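Write out this protein's structure.
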Amino acid sequence: GYFFKRVKKIFAKDDMTLVNFEGTLTKRDTRAPKRFAFKGSPGYVKILKKGSVEAVSFANNHCRDFGEGSYRDTIHYLDQAGVTYSSYSKVSVYKIRGKKIGMIAVNGLENISSVKALIQKGMKKLKKRKADIRIVSMHAGIEHNYTVSTAQKSIARYAVDQGASLVLGHHPHNLQGIERYKGVYIAYSLGNFCFGGNTNPSDKDTMIFQQTFVFHKDKLKRKKSRVKIIPCSISSVSGINNYQPAPAKGKKKARILRKLDRMCRPLGLTLR
C-alpha cells in the first residue's frame, strides 16, 4: 500500500483508474540484451490492487524484458489478481455503472502501419462487444523529448478517426502537451508516475489526467465531457525518488500547470 498511498483517495473515488504497466512480473533471470530491463516480484501485482488501479495497458518496449516467458508470466499474474489489461491484439472491457469501457493498447515504437492495423482490428472487437467508451493507450514518442513527434500524432489521430473516445500516450518519460482532435482528448505523454527505473530523475513532474464521460439516453455526449488535470510529482520528497507519487501543491502545482499550458498551446489547447 506504500506506493500509491498519497494518490489512493483520488484513484478510489473514480470509476476506473488506468495506468501504463511498464515492466514484467516474473521470476525469470535471463534478461534481454538491452541497457534497461525491468522486472518485479509477482507479488508486486498487489501494489495495483492496494492502490485502486483497476486496469493497465501492457504494450511497450519493456513487456518482454526477460523474454517472451516474462510477458506471459505478467499476463498470468494480472489475470490472477483480477486486474483488467489490454495488450496488442488483446482488447479488454471494464464494466461500471451500466457502461462498458473498452481498451486497446499498442506499442507505437513498432511499425506504424502494423500499429494502426491493431487499432483498427481492436476497434472492431470493441464495437462487437458494444463498448460505450473506447480508450486507446499508445506507447510512442521520443524519450526525454517535450515535443510531440509526427509518429505520435499520426497514431493518435488515426485512433480517433477509428472511433477512440480518448487517447493516452506514454514513453517519453516526461509530460507532453494535450490536444483536442475532433472533440476527443489526446494526452500525448503522461510522463513517469510510480517509476522505479531511476533513483533521482531530473524531471519529477507528472499528472493524473481525469476525464468524466457524460451520457444522455445512452449516447455519449463528447461536448459535455469534462477534463481535470491533477499536477503531481513522482516522489513525495525532494532530492530523491521515493517511488511514492504525490499531488503537487502551492507554487509547484502552479508551475506544472504553466508548463503544461506552454506545451498544449502549440496543439491548439489552452489550460484554464
